[in-house]
Design brief:
271 residues; six-stranded mixed β-sheet; 8 helices; 10 strands; binds adenosine-5'-triphosphate; ATP binding; Bicarbonate transport ATP-binding protein CmpD
Length: 271
């Protein structure tokens, strides 16, 4: 077997509780998870179960309290330099144009400006923003900003792409367009993707594998499903196929109870 792109081994993350500083809260525990080179893996689970925590661990933004992280076989210490990260929130610098934003990472790496500009323009074209390089973030729609963010990540040609609910703020049509575009780009480049989402439909439509997390505290994977739907896929069309519906029913069977538990916990915390 080839070395996985990401290998989380028996990870635990314990935080000082926000509600009671004297208490500790174990968000995730006994999490072992791999993403193969070129594999698209989604993690789904109830709200607050620790999905973003795991992504932060894979990005090297958060050191786990226990366990090891290996990136292409090497123990991760510090930031994961082989990964690009696409957050739920906007990541564009408001004072830079779309082109300036996409160029920024290349410039920080020390690439000569003319070359950085040429590569950034090429990526803006690939994400459908070729004519909008001179727009500032506030002059773009939410969908355009997401495209620019995507170009910002992909221009750096990372071997691993970490995505935390990147499309959750978009309307459904724009979202489906973006999902298809991400799949097309992924299919062409075959990077390892770790994708976090609340949306089971999205997870199944996009992924090679879907991992289901239990409700917290001490969340861990409780189910793993191979998505054997042929590619290329159209995310809207695939949702009407019998295989999709069967997989959806199977995964929802595992996820449903955890979502209810997570919801009850939220209500208790809010009370
Ligand atoms: N830095 C921190 N300090 C204290 N608690 C934290 C910290 N980061 C996360 N937590 C807690 O750990 C748990 C997991 O959080 P996380 O954001 O990873 O969940 P999530 O599954 O991504 O949530 P959502 O689906 O709502 O985005 C939550 O209960 C959260 O309050």
């Amino acid at each position: 077997m080839t070395t996985p792109a990401i290998e989380l081994q028996d990870i635990a993350c314990t935080f000082i509780s926000k509600d009671a500083p004297g208490q500790r809260y174990t968000a995730v525990e006994h999490v072992s998870l791999t993403v193969g080179a070129g594999e698209f893996v989604s993690v789904v689970g109830p709200t607050g179960c620790g999905k973003s925590t795991l992504l932060n661990v894979a990005a090297g933004l958060l050191a786990p309290s226990r366990g090891t992280v290996r990136i292409f076989g090497q123990p991760l210490t510090g930031l994961n330099a082989r990964a690009g990260y696409m957050f739920q929130a906007e990541s564009l610098m408001p004072w830079r144009t779309a082109l300036g934003n996409v160029m920024a990472g290349l410039e920080f790496r020390g690439m000569p400006p003319a070359e950085a500009r040429a590569q950034a323009e090429e990526w803006l074209r690939r994400v459908g923003l070729g004519a909008f390089g001179d727009r500032y973030p506030h002059q773009m729609s939410g969908g355009m900003r997401k495209r620019a963010s995507l170009a910002q990540v992909l221009v750096l040609d990372p071997d691993i792409i970490l995505m935390d609910e990147p499309f959750s703020a978009l309307d459904i049509q724009t979202r489906q367009l973006m999902e298809n575009e991400v799949l097309a780009l992924w299919q062409a480049k075959r990077k390892a993707v770790l994708f976090i989402t609340h949306d089971l439909d999205e997870a199944i439509a996009m992924s090679d594998r879907v991992v289901v997390m239990s409700a917290g505290p001490a969340s861990r994977p409780i189910g793993e499903f191979a998505i054997d739907i042929p590619r290329p896929r159209d995310v809207a069309e695939v949702k009407m196929t019998p295989r999709f519906l069967k997989l959806h029913a199977a995964i929802w069977g595992v996820l449903r109870e955890e979502v209810l538990k997570g919801y009850q916990q939220q209500l208790r915390r809010a009370a």
